[in-house]
């Protein structure tokens, strides 16, 4: 059973729809016991960081999410809330990833929000298919065999909609460039996060979701 | 490596069915928006736009369930528009699974609706559709000589473009460029700019107007009206800052299938999403 964290953020239904299309059993819930007992947890979200964090704190869900032991996937706002701090509403976040969330600087000719299809981006470290299961069937064998830093670029386009971004730190599995380099995928222990929307990213997104579902804890 | 230019097929919906004749090979029911949506997603469309042209005032009964059905099958983003005139209905449509809603006449009638929707749903969900047409009585160059003005002759000429409402039937006092700036100021996330002078001609997009607006604004512009060949899309993306191109019949009738258009755009150096299925 995949639990989807229910809170005051949009697009939860999109994640449910995507999992249903893949035939994966799922349940939207804010019950701490159900979240703890789930095989995997997806923490979605479109919305504003401050209001979302207040909502989670009032219900004690902030602690619950931080302490989850099974694989957890944050999407978009969910990813940003898993970082330590967000410039959006000067919000203290969950601190799972030791990095901060900033607003894209206004730049001539560059539209903000970063909205539309862009690539997953540069992969920070060499991919090992055993370890980095999230990239299974996303990169080619050729990619896997490259071993140096920044050599691998996942050109697969995925759908982004965001005005704020997580600054790449050691947890960044992939880095996309738009105005500035930003983390498109973060991973630390059992916590995964994607800035783009796999649930809206056509077949590439479906593969990424399948890869997350296939992670064995 | 960059943000890709989006290709958006637009489907007109009436009473839950697509209206324009649609000619897809192997489609079981060409009038079924859900079937079509799946087909376009599989072809590599980047986004879809559904415009409900049903005449009834009460859209909740037909449109909302349809949006729910589309959302269940579609793995790319989609926009729903047509007669949305209040926050409550917009919220229902987003809740049913649409990624964005588009408003048009309602925004002209009550511009603050844009801000209300942006506050309630987030700017990224709010598309304002602008139907524009050049009104030849004003804004010609001869006039500009009599009116000392800081603007360039191009700006002045383009100022003859007026906003139309009610499906393009009614001209308003609004000047297109300043209305677009107002739309951005009020918090919309995107503008769908349809040139009625070009719509249906298949002679190319309104490049000068699209270019001017897309440079003045920081929100994305979806250009619509006139796209007939891949060369038209190429000039749209090379000569203007438009983020997306929208069209209907050329896609529906198979005149310019989405995969073919994207292949040709990619060959001319336009950044488009070519779905990679390697390994998947």
What does this structure look like?
The complex is a heterodimer of chains A (217) and B (280). Chain A has 217 residues and is α/β, with parallel strands linked by helices. Chain A has helices spanning 12-21, 32-37, 49-58, 61-66, 77-81, 141-145, 202-213; strands spanning 2-5, 26-29, 40-43, 72-75, 85-86, 91-92, 100-103, 114-123, 152-162, 164-166, 172-178, 180-188, 191-194. Chain A is built from seven helices and 13 strands. In chain A, the strands form two sheets. A nine-stranded mixed β-sheet of chain A has the order 2-1-3-4-13-12-11-8-9. Chain A has a four-stranded mixed β-sheet with strand order 6-5-7-10. In chain A, strand 11 (172-178) and strand 12 form a beta hairpin. The longest helix of chain A has 12 residues, at 202-213. Chain B is of the alpha/beta class and 280 residues long. Helices cover 38% and strands 21% of the residues of chain B. The longest helix of chain B is centred in the first third of the chain and has 14 residues, at 60-73. The radius of gyration of chain B is 19 Å and the shape is globular. Chain A binds chain B through residues 10, 13-14, 17-18, 20-21, 46-48, 106, 109, 111-119, 121, 137-140, 153, 155-157, 159, 161, 177-178, 197, 199-207, and chain B through 1-4, 6, 41, 44, 46, 71-73, 75-77, 94-97, 99, 121-125, 189-190, 218-220, 241, 243-244, 273, 275-280.
